[in-house]
Amino acid sequence: MTGQIDVLTTGWSDGQTVEVGAQMYGLASDTIARTLFTAEAAAPAVDAVTASLPDIFRGIYQQAVLPPLLRRLPLPPNVRYERARNRAWAAVSKTISSYRQDGGPHGDVLSMLLKTQDDAGEPLGDAEIHAQIMTLLVAGIDTTAVALTWAVHLLCQYPDVQERLRIETTEVLGTRTATWEDLPRLDLARRVITETLRLYPPGWIFTRTTSAEARLADAVIPSETTLVYSPYLIHRDPRFNARPDFFDPDRWLPEREHTRGTLIPFGGGARKCLGDNYAMTLATLALSTIVAQWRLSHGGLPTPAVEPRMTLAPHKVQVRVESLESEPLADSIRQ
Ligand code: HEM
Fold this sequence. Notes:
Blueprint lengths: L1 H9 L5 E4 H17 L6 H23 L2 H5 L3 H27 L6 H7 L10 H32 L1 H15 L13 H13 L6 E4 L4 E3 L2 E3 L4 E4 L1 H5 L40 H18 E4 L8 E3 L3 E3 L3 E6 L5 H6 L1
Antiparallel strand pairs: 1-9, 2-5, 3-4, 6-9, 7-8
Helix pairs in contact: 1-2, 2-7, 3-5, 5-7, 7-8, 7-9, 7-11, 8-11, 9-11
GO molecular function, one term: monooxygenase activity
Keywords: Heme, Iron, Metal-binding, Monooxygenase, Oxidoreductase
Cofactor: heme
């Protein structure tokens, strides 16, 4: 994570305007792909998979909203989706074969999957490993990228919070890139991410289908009923959060009161996100490093329009970045 965050933040120049969504997508996809496959031989697969994913994400969303007949016609979006899936599938399959041949382990997720046994004590087959890898890529990249993009946008909209965060990062990091060991001291950064996930949960709408008659509060729900729920609406319900539309990272201070179970950006229960700690870690380290090294502003632009995709993504967040390396940082902030 630290290596990839370094690549991101050293790639910017003073006074540049960056398209935050694309930058965060690059960070999340490179980091997650390298967590899955670290071996040198997997580099072409990482490139092929990360290049195919945007078409795969668009395809999954379109498949979910198109009527069944249109999903099967050879329309250009369907063809692009199919081609992208085949390309990613071929790249991952080649990597699985090369890992099986060289024997590993490489200290990555693919090596772990190759050692994993199923409930019958059998090693996982290629199709199962492939499905696990694709699930992690699809579930992890866009969600984490979108969360970081909203966080940067909110820090531009609330410059007082950005300055407070800079006091924390100056103390903990100076201007260096954050590492795992810094996490316990990046308290405000974590609260900023949590509050961002409350206001803009990337997974904004989910369904559940009852497998038996169920009771929910006073309602009896028959078996085979599909229920829809939205973390976005629950997070903004004034019964659970005072001034719900206001960005206030301090509402997550431990001494403040919270209604249990009403913050659900990662879902809950048996199907809760398995990447929650990974995502929180990457987002906290990345946001802290960005704020430690760069001042962010977007000239008071209004909240960007929301793109209804698989995730609740902002449409184009353009931010001007000013380097803090040359400023006598600690003094200027503490005054
Ligand atoms: C800010 C980032 C993320 C958010 C907001 C998020 C959100 C969620 C939510 C709400 C669910 C539950 C879906 C449901 O109830 O149907 C979920 C499931 C899942 N997430 Fe995440 N996620 C994030 C990052 C990640 C990452 C980084 C990974 C892995 C690299 C990941 C892997 C998964 C997987 C595999 C599941 C399915 C778990 C299961 O069904 O057993 N997620 N995520």
